[in-house]
């Protein structure tokens, strides 16, 4: 998919912010540990993706009611929905100077009801000529997201017949509607009610 940078400044996709706080010691510590097991940027990016996908449960799968949204808090609580996990992965990538941003899909139930905005990421390896989307949501029966920069292996390929769409925007910071829902929710049950259904 051709992504459109919402910020034309390439440095925006390396910047630290409120949600993507890769200057935080907890994020730096995790990045350092991952770097010890990897060599180049590709192997680091793959390790960071698998770390977030596999060791931080999606709170809907684990039943965890807490709402984490800041990358450092996601790493501390080992908890988060797709958006929070995406914040953590982008922070880990940026901590090693790998440009990364946030992107979104509009998904729905199998009958087209209950639409919601799903979060994932895109990265561009140094020297690379394009952005590649990855989905760190976490695998489960029926979901098999993989690290593949040549062919997308996302958790949820969209079904246009159900009104699902891939949003082409690539954001340097979380979309304001998503961040407002995360920050304003006391628990995951409230978060499901507050998450936007479209961007």
From TrEMBL:
Q: Which domain of life is it from?
A: Bacteria
Matches recorded under InterPro entries: Papain-like_cys_pep_sf, Transglutaminase-like
Q: Where is the Transglutaminase-like domain?
A: 34-136
This chain's protein is named Transglutaminase
UniProt organism field: Streptomyces amritsarensis
């Amino acid at each position: 998919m051709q992504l459109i940078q919402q910020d034309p400044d390439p440095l925006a996709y390396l910047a630290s912010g409120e949600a993507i706080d890769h200057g935080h010691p907890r994020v730096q510590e995790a990045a350092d540990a991952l770097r010890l097991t990897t060599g180049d940027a590709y192997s680091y990016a793959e390790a960071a993706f698998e770390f977030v996908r596999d060791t931080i449960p999606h709170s809907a799968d684990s039943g965890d009611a807490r709402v984490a949204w800041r990358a450092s808090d996601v790493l501390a609580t080992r908890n988060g929905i797709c958006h929070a996990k995406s914040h953590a992965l982008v922070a880990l990538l940026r901590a090693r100077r790998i440009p990364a941003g946030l992107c979104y899909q509009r998904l729905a139930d199998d009958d087209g009801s209950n639409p919601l905005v799903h979060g994932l990421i895109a990265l561009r390896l140094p020297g690379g000529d394009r952005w590649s989307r990855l989905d760190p949501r976490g695998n489960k029966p029926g979901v098999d997201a993989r690290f593949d920069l040549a062919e997308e292996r996302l958790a949820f390929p969209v079904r246009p017949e159900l009104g699902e769409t891939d949003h082409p925007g690539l954001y340097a910071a979380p979309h304001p509607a998503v961040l407002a829902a995360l920050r304003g929710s006391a628990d995951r049950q409230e978060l499901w009610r507050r998450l936007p259904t479209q961007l």
